[in-house]
């Protein structure tokens, strides 16, 4: 994955090389988020590499949705660490 800085030209080339179907992956992030703030109708559980228990929440997003999410995440309130 090339991450959130993927140029439109590169994304279009990757899309074309893969018959233009089913590739909407921009980046993976694993922030800690209060489960009560997640619209569970928009996410799904999946195991990592299709092995073991489905323990990862996945949230499909368009590139713009991901960029908006990333911006909100970078500017979010931070929880203090307990030592």
UniProtKB/TrEMBL annotation:
Q: Which Pfam families match?
A: GIDA
| Domain MnmG N-terminal positions | 5-81
Cofactor annotation:
FAD
State the InterPro entries in the record.
MnmG_N
This chain's protein is named FADH(2)-oxidizing methylenetetrahydrofolate--tRNA-(Uracil(54)-C(5))-methyltransferase TrmFO
Q: What is the lineage of its organism?
A: Bacteria, Bacillati, Bacillota, Bacilli, Lactobacillales
């Amino acid at each position: 994955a090339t991450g959130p800085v993927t140029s439109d030209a590169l994304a279009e080339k990757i899309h074309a090389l893969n018959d233009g179907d089913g590739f909407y992956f921009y980046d993976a992030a694993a922030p800690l988020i209060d489960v009560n703030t997640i619209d569970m109708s928009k996410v799904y559980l999946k195991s990592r590499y299709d092995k073991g228990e489905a323990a990862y929440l996945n949230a499909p997003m368009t590139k713009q949705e991901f960029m908006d999410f990333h911006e909100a995440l970078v500017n979010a309130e931070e929880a203090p660490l307990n030592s």
